[in-house]
Specification:
The complex is a heterodimer. Chain A is mainly β. Chain A is 0% helix and 49% strand. In chain A, the strands form two sheets. In chain A, strands 2, 4, 5, 6, 9, 10 and 11 form a seven-stranded mixed beta sheet that branches. In chain A, strands 1-3-8-7 form a four-stranded antiparallel beta sheet, with no helix packed on it. In chain A, a hairpin with a 2-residue loop joins β7 and β8. By secondary structure, chain B is an all-beta fold. The termini of chain B are far apart. Classes of the chains: A mainly beta, B mainly beta. At the A-B interface, β5 and β10 of A face β5 and β10 of B.
Chain lengths: 112, 121
């Protein structure tokens, strides 16, 4: 199975600051069709996960441009600029290039 | 508007079979490229993908639970189902269903609110 390692495990950020989360894969996430199926989710306290970024760098409907995704192959990054209170929660990456689909262990974003 | 809602027994005993239902609206599982997946999350822990079912009735399972999982759908009633046999306390979790649409985001784009399941004797 593909192992996704997220770092850091937790992140203390001031309001208005910038956060960067890494998701590193145990193998390349480039599919045989050329696409890279790496997605990012935010799970706010007490809520279901919500899709933020799909296929590395595409923002989902309604997601502000403060969220950006980048990366290729095995190394991916989610950046959150101008952190707001509603950004707090646990961030997960998901790969669906290889079966079984796997999630990273999560990164908890908290306010400093 | 896409919505999904999970339902389940709440509590069951070890060795029983867990039956979960996902009732959705705003999309059809007969549409090309459409799928529904099941994901679970033990309290305070991370997410684990369980199974997907697709518009063409193709099914994929997490091998770690494959022999215990059965996913199915009722397209006419906009429902998807997951059965887990021979449950034990390690199956205690919140279970989510989520939509997948290959022609758009290709990941789980809309999620249900989740249903808590406790396995206890």
């Amino acid at each position: 199975d593909v192992v996704l390692t997220q770092t850091p495990v937790s992140l203390l950020i001031s309001l208005g600051g910038q956060a960067s989360i890494s998701c590193r894969s145990s193998q390349s996430l480039v599919h045989s069709n050329g696409n890279t199926y790496l997605h990012w989710y935010l799970q706010k306290p007490g809520q279901s996960p919500q899709l933020l970024i799909y296929q590395v760098s595409n923002r989902f409907s309604g997601i502000p441009d403060r969220f950006s995704g980048s990366g290729s192959g095995t190394d991916f990054t989610l950046k959150i600029s101008r952190v707001e209170p509603e950004d707090l929660g646990v961030y997960y990456c998901l790969q669906r290039t290889h079966n079984p689909w796997t999630f990273g262990g999560g990164t908890k974003l908290e306010l400093k | 508007q896409v919505t999904l809602k999970e339902s389940g027994p709440g509590i069951l005993q070890p060795s029983q079979t867990l039956s979960l239902t996902c009732t959705f609206s705003g999309f059809s599982l007969s549409t090309y490229g459409m799928g529904v997946g099941w994901i679970r999350q033990p309290s305070g822990k991370g997410l684990e993908w369980l199974a997907n079912i697709w518009w063409d009735d193709d099914k994929y399972y997490n091998p770690s639970l494959k022999n215990r999982l059965t996913i199915s759908k009722d397209t006419s009633n906009n429902q998807a189902f997951l059965k887990i046999t021979n449950v034990d306390t390690a199956d205690t979790a919140t279970y989510y269903c989520a939509r997948i649409y290959l022609r758009e985001t290709t990941g789980f784009d809309y999620w249900g609110q989740g249903v808590m399941v406790t396995v206890s004797s």
